[in-house]
């Protein structure tokens, strides 16, 4: 397998075809969630009133920071936000190509994965693109790429992935489940090669995982807005979601009835492929060319399923 995907014609063809479908989202409007995020950061920039003070919302700060970056680069417009999202997802296509090729050992898998993702992303329509999960997925893709390409630079790998996962936590805290997934991966990779240093690596990883949340708390503390932050994203969410999950029967019905019904109804082709391909691979004894990457992705999928709400 070639490590330099930029020399492969299929890579550029995948970006061209997948990018075409991504470009179609440029004509989508902003729906409720994106409008709140973008208006919130516009108030933040114009009136120096950060989220939860200038504009109230119960979402965590990470998505506001992403929208602030989009506004800083492309300005306060629907076109600017959509263009920002397209460029982010286009980079995501490249990472999907690389990971699929590394996992399967063939560039054809990378090509198909990237093209299908472009089609899938367009199918989400206005309300589904530019959402928290899209950026979380992008950040997790980047973590996977760094995990497999920085194997010999363990300190840099631990710091960068920790920082990215810390930001994922700021977007949706339940994705903190990804922290132990990568922590166990680092431990498994380093316990035999460097048993003494691997624990220091995990400490570095943990510190950087916490860094974005600590920086956010310090920012709001310095402005004396910690109560607003707590009431909006901690108190409100805890009251709403704990009340929703009071009865175990409701929780069981969600996982056993609602989730399977949604998956079978909305993504039958994806589900069928997801079940068929691993089954064929196991039968032939060809789990993956990169088994470490396979198991890392497998457990990240489990963590993502736990966030399916």
Q: What does this entry look like structurally?
A:
The chain has 309 residues and is mainly alpha-helical. It has 14 helices and no strands. The chain has helices at 9-23, 32-47, 61-74, 78-104, 107-123, 125-128, 132-149, 154-171, 178-190, 197-222, 226-244, 248-266, 268-284, 291-305. The longest helix has 27 residues, at 78-104. The protein is globular, with a radius of gyration of 20 Å. The two termini are 38 Å apart.
Compute the separation of the termini in Å: 38 Å
Oligomerization status of the protein chains = single chain
Overall geometric form? globular
Number of helical segments with 4 or more residues: 14
Low-confidence stretches: none
Order of helices and strands: HHHHHHHHHHHHHH
**Percent helix:** over 70%
Rg, rounded, reads 20 Å
Mean pLDDT: 86
Structural class: mainly alpha
User: In total, how many beta strands?
Assistant: 0
Biggest sheet, open or closed, and with what strands and sense?
A: none
Strand percent estimate = under 5%
């Amino acid at each position: 397998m070639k490590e330099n995907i930029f020399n492969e014609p299929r890579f550029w063809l995948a970006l061209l075809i997948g990018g075409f479908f991504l470009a179609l989202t440029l004509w989508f409007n902003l729906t409720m969630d994106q409008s709140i995020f973008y208006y919130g950061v516009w108030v933040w920039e114009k009136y120096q009133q950060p989220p939860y003070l200038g504009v109230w919302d119960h979402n965590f700060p990470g998505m506001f920071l992403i929208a602030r970056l989009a506004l800083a680069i492309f300005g306060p417009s629907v076109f600017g936000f959509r263009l920002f999202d397209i460029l982010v997802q286009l980079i995501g296509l490249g990472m999907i190509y690389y990971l699929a090729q590394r996992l399967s050992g063939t560039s054809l898998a990378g090509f198909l994965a990237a093209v299908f993702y472009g089609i899938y992303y367009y199918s989400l329509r206005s309300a589904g693109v530019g959402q928290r999960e899209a950026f979380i997925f992008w950040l997790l893709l980047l973590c996977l790429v760094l995990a497999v390409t920085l194997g010999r630079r363990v300190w840099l790998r631990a710091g960068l992935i920790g920082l990215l996962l810390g930001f994922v936590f700021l977007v949706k805290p339940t994705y903190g489940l990804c922290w132990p997934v990568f922590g166990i991966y680092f431990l498994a990779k380093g316990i035999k090669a460097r048993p003494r240093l691997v624990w220091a690596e995990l400490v570095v990883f943990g510190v950087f995982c916490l860094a974005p949340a600590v920086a956010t708390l310090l920012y709001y503390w310095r402005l004396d807005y910690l109560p607003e932050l707590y009431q909006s994203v901690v108190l409100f969410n805890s009251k709403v979601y704990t009340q929703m999950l009071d009865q175990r029967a409701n929780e069981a019905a969600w996982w056993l009835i609602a989730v399977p019904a949604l998956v079978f109804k909305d993504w039958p082709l994806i589900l069928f492929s997801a079940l068929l391909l691993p089954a064929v691979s196991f039968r032939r004894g060809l789990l993956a060319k990169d088994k470490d990457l396979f198991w890392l992705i497998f457990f990240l999928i489990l963590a993502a399923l736990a966030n399916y709400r």
